[in-house]
Amino acid sequence: MSEKSGQAKRGEAASAAPASSESIRLRGAKTHNLKGVDLDFVPASLVAIAGVSGAGKSSLAFSTLYAEGQRRYVESFSPYVRQFLERLARPPVDLLEPVPAGIAVDRQAPVKTSRSTVGTMTDLADYGKTLWARAATLQCPGCGGPVHREGPTSAAEATLAQGKGRRVVVTYPLPVEDTGQFLGVREGLLAEGYRRIWVSGEARELESLAPSELGLKGKSGALMHVVADRTVAKDEERERLVEAFEAAFRQSGGRADLWWGEGGEPLSFSRGLHCARCDRAFQEPTPALFSFNSPVGACPSCRGFGRVIQIDFDRVLPDDTLSLEEGAVRPWQGKSTSWERNGLKKHAAKAGIPMDVPLRDLDAKARHWLIEGDELGYPKGWWGIRAWFSWLESRAYKMHVRVLLSRYRKYERCPDCQGKRLRPEALQWKIEGRSLADFFALPAEQSLALIEGLGTQAMGRDPALALLLEECGSRLRALVEVGLGYLSLDRAARTLSGGEAQRVALTAALGASLSGAMFVLDEPSVGLHPQDVARLGGVVRRLADAGNLVLLVEHDLELLRQVDRVVELGPAAGDEGGCVVFDGSPAELSRASTPTGRALRAGPKSQSEARRKAGAWLRLEGATGNNLRDVTLELPLGVATCITGVSGSGKSSLILDTLCPALHRHLGGEREGLPYRKLEGWGALKGLLEVDQSPLGRTSRGNPATYLKIWEAFRKRFAAQPLAKERGYGPGFFSFNVAGGRCEACKGEGAETVEMQFLADVSFSCPECGGRRFAGGVLDVLYREHNVADLLEMSAQRAFEIYGDDKEIGTKLRLLIDLGLGYLRLGQALNTLSGGESQRLKLAAAVAGFRPGSMVVLDEPTAGLHPQEVPPLLQVLRGMVKRGGTVVVIEHDMRVAAWADHLIELGPGAGPQGGRIVAQGTPEKFVRSAAPSAEFLKPLLAPTGKAKTASSLRTKAAARITPRERSASAARALEGRVSDIRMVGVREHNWKNVSVDLPRDALIVVSGPSGSGKSSLAFDVLYAEAQRRFLETLSPYARQYMPQLPRPAVDRVLGVPPAVSLEQHGQRGGSQSTVATLTEVAHYLRLLYARIGLLHCPGCRVPIEPRSPAMLAEDLRKKLPASASLRILAPVIRGRKGIHKEVFDRARREGLQEVRVDGEWQVLKSGMKLDRYQEHDIDWLVATHKVRDAALEESLRRAAEWGEGAIRVLHEEEEWLLSTRRACPACGRGFPELDPRFFSFNTRQGACERCEGKGVLVEDEANEVYRTCPACEGSRLSELARAVEIGGRNLAQVSAQSVERAFAELSQLRLGGRDAAIGAQSLEEAKRRLRFLLEVGLGYLGLDRRADTLSGGELQRVRLAAQLGSGLTGALYVLDEPTIGLHPRDTHRLIDALRRLVEARNTVLVVEHDADVIAAADHVLDVGPGGGSGGGNVVAAGTLTQLQGDPRSVTGPALAQPLHLPTERRPVRSGEGEWLSIRGAAEHNLRALDVDFPLARLVAVSGVSGSGKSTLVRDVLLPATQRALGSKNARPGRFVALEGSASLKRALEVDQSPIGRTPRSVPATYIGVWDAIRRLFAGTAEARARGYGLGRFSFNAGEGRCETCAGQGAIRVEMAFLPEVLVPCEVCAGKRFNAETLQVRWQGLNVAEILALPIEQAAQVFAPVSKIARPLQMMAELGLGYLQLGQPSNTLSGGEAQRLKLVAELASGSESQRSLYVLDEPTTGLHRVDVERLLLLLQRLVERGDSVIVIEHQLDVIAAADWVIELGPEGGEGGGELVVQGTPEDLIACRKSPTGQALAQARGPKTVSKGRSGRSKPSQSSPSPLPM
What we know:
Helix content: 25-40%
Largest sheet: 6 strands, mixed
């Protein structure tokens, strides 16, 4: 199939866009000017959205499709994080389902941080640091030679190479400090079999060696060379040499020496990196060493910025023709620096420095004196200019000082790293002779050539390195393909143009390998030369081929021809646009009669006007900035000149950065520019105007009328009308920016904006002025029958028809019409204009301000313009030339080049290959040159009928892509069509460099034994990489508040969609969390009540209303005696964090003297600021008055203005809050503006003052007796919050209901008008989350139910509801054991919810052990075969059936085994044994239960989720028992009596809470074996000889630990603008101990090596020491053998921590104590094979006489129990009863038992006897536990 036909078929398929299950369906889009647009989009397609400027393209692409896709994905983050993300409004559409996560690649200003570079934006910085850490060679800084890693084998090879046939001796160095230590060391060496020492060229027997022969005298140390072996260097002895070096390395910690038998210089070897020539060791490189964004790799001097800030003395002393007396020192020219000038004069006279000599005539010594000062310095001598600036730095807290300093600062290259950003150690590592900094400094084209060369070398030799190089190459290749091959990777992102930044972001998006997302690009062709457009099309095509929907807002005709489908909006702009006028393939569009269709068919137009001749010339010589190569520019004046050239050729550097700044300086301005030698001919110019691509404005106050200064003329005309003069209305009354005629309710905005925190802000027309901006009498004034509000709504065309004869107004309106902007409303906000509209409006302003003889410079004026809008633009530019102006246009559009009088091209290439003028002259002369643009310009100048067709031109442009590039691109595109998620080379944690493929849009389960690597794969690799890639599409500002996940150890991840994590950590919510807060229902309800709630006066119960200052003054006069003195305060800050320096500065400017800060009075003074991280209240003291003062009303008015309507009045000890906006009409009490914090009992603003938000009051603290707070009645909320109502109900009343009832009530709530505009979204979000709670079976829960009272199952599903309620589609959901706490009966609910996600085209990956979930999965990944080092492999994959037939599978056979019921159990009989009985348990939903638990038995408590299991055992039985045993802290729930506790000695819960939160806690210390291990080391002969005691081997204290990291093995490093990081300690290399301590060995291992042992291996090492071996063996038996002895406890999972606690209990020697152990879901995180091990451990506890009560749903545990108690029959209000108790067999026999039915199903059909239920007592075979 040909390329053309293939593309046509793709286009036809895309244009059809069938509404299938995979289609993205958009219905009724009404964003901005869209008129109910209906469209369907197919994933993995490339769609262009075209149309004239203002037709609605961005409204459709960005404000509708991207906005909704981004909004839904962002909802998966926490409310806190969402505050910092772009909050996009929900677009007005009837339907948009499903919608993938949206990613915008637009032309907004690039990132501002200096840390961001092209390399960081494209991930090449990350890949580069990994590449250098893996493949670079170290160059020794001492001798310059290469340093290679050495090991036993390489040392043996070097020996054979240098001395084959010679006698050799292999030794290792061992330092000794004194004679005493030597004797101890000797004893140890002899015990280990080392009997010889190499001394003075011979081997001496250790036993006969005297200390003095080593040079030991007294306390002086010496170095012993212990002989490891003696042999002859020959091939037959190769293995012996290797073993000798291995032994030497092991014994010495990595050092070995080789001595020649006949003498000579020895060879030194080091395991690792060591320069033998310099005897210098080096650290192993890590990727962090090569990152300037890491404290490990950043240059210490500049912190990785590459630049340092210095004083720019060229600015301080700018004019060397001036003398010091004439003011040569510019910062000392003002009145405020007279002291400095006087000091200079005095000290200059003393030093003999002339004050009247021009600066240029001063000698070097005098200039040095002026800048650096004399030897005395301040205060006795001359301080110098530099010291003066240093003094200013100390006062930089003042704004004016900071402004002054900024004028005289400059950035200079860091003198230490020379701008390379990296520390010296990193720069010593090189590939092909280049450091990483050198590599980053190369243009992308050269970097690509280097990488491709390395890839060829690595192919077949190192597959992992080849893969890494391919990743680097693909990103570099994409940069080249989008025309950015000239950019270097260290180019700062802030220096990129908008088009460059967008294309860099595009390559980053391509490199991210995201799939299933929606990319929206805003004119990616802007700034591209025609020859680069074809390559750009290939790049965006690859993005679509990777499974993404790609939307291009585009005008470029060549790019439009390369897409699958074109949607054109129109037919015109503004109100006349917003309709779909075409939807089809590019081929069909070329036949359509739409503006874009006509443009595609249009041929070249002949030049209608003769070329103008230059009247004079401007000459710029010697331009050398950036890539310019000593360019001399000759620019004709009085004509139109086009500057063109390939992207990166130097056009902007020459014109914008060199010529324009030079002209500014010569014409009287000041602007920093690039260097040049000379500028001639500038005197002919009268001025300079620049029209660039910077944004017009970001607020709604700017509009076309104000921007063009038309509004000033209109205001004067209105003020001149008779009625205006009669009423005294000046021009200011007709301004919406100042008080007068504007509406004061909205301050002239015309709209009211309500901040919605983590939702998009809501704007609606001001209710006072109806959106007209003006109010009152000013609207009565008419000018030609229209008032000012009418005028703002007029289009420019309509205004011209009415006011065009007014020259001042009509001229500017005519400009708008000529530029095709006649449809714009005069009052349309500038921030709503499209890019093309903004560009033309700026041009209109330039034309309006144009003076004949001026030069106008335009930077790509056709950017954002439709082809039909270019001719009017050129006509306007031609008009300026005719008026005597000079027009210079930087442009790639060949239509502009053909129109110009003169053409200059820079090139011939980009970057280093550019920077020269390659052709110039008229267009006709130009096309005869060999310039790159000539072939694209030629068709436009050809005579009509002879022009080449557009398709032939496109073919020629595409032909520039070589066959090699085309085939490579096609192969990559094919590879990019990833239908699966593919992880290549997974090495995270225990993974063994494995590649994993997972299907998309499926339910996937990852299972396997504990510690096998399941969570590492799911969360640390797949989720982390997917999340990281999506976060990189966000702004740096937003990313700093996001969870920063480290890059996983994986070669690459392909086809991964944006991900959402639902990881469970086994932690319960606190007492301040509720069901409503966990699901975010509370967040939306608070927002709803704060924004639309009706506030009533709590005392009078009447609605509040506005109250004027006069009314407030009258209220005070009625209340107080005439002599009363009042202080009037303005509350400007309420409960806000920050330093608030600007608040104090503003108060001083307003003339105030005193403020109240957090209740304390303070006098205002300069530099006041507060603690940034504390909440503060600040009140300004406005005035002090007697109550009868006439000025009282004015002071109240000023206070209300500053306090936004709020006023505080102090009288003696009383204080009142008044308000002009919110006051009680009955009592006059004022109220603050409602804020969401007022409705949270977790804030001081919203909590009930009496109970502090707890809901209860303490009656008896000793016995923990509480009663409900009478003030808030247990609602926890403040009086103010309870006084706000919606629909007659306050928030406390809504929250007190169940989920089901709250949903029903909110569903009946109807909002109208303003309330609907503000509150509809909050209400809908709350209802959506409630609906999901209902769907997962939690409708019975109360919204105010405390999180810490929820059962495990309830808590799990509440968390799921909070996350899954976001409604996102096309995403990857990663869940961690979602069945935890779920009864088998309820598992289907969860499976149904997950299945609904899959049906919505999501991929759901679940780490799970539950058999039902595994059976329901579309794909199961079985990880194993063991834990720790025994895991990290995929042993089987497929469906459960396939796994059960796979002999390698661990999970399949385990699940195939039927449930095992023990044939024998411990007997439980009435009247026998001991019982623990609870009577009248009534906490939460328990219904006065009487329950009996047999002691010395394994008891399982089961029941459906929410039935009351945790409440009965954890909240009632356990604390009641603990209290009975003497605990004062136990706080049991309600019960009547406890019986049988006397036979117990202690009761405790073994939960899954962390056993340590710092690296100082490790398993060895927790289970109590570390002290015994330390004793073993302290007892060695070497330790005794060195005098080391027990404390020497502690990493928490003592002299043995590494002092640098204090025994933690890592150091926390802080760095500017980056999060703090934990890096391995460089001194001890993470080993925690110092070198001396590590020399002591036990069984050949030092103490650090012992800590690194896995438990299973450690148990073997310590097998002879039973005290140590026994606990370690228990851990191994319990499935924890993969943990390391020294693994930090804060890295353990909850299940691992729980099992570790069980081992500690068994190993603690507590056999003599009769203990009650309570475990809640101990099988969490356990595979079925691990459950068996857990049961063995629990049975051991019972066998030694302990009692174990397990709350559990896992059927193997229930089946193994001696006794089972089941609660139910349902959850919540439907639970709390005893369903059945007895043996597992009894439950199976009970038809009412959900657990029994699950047991029966797992066991298989079997006839059983009838069981017992309810409160009935057991029969004799299983006697009643109830004592009579």
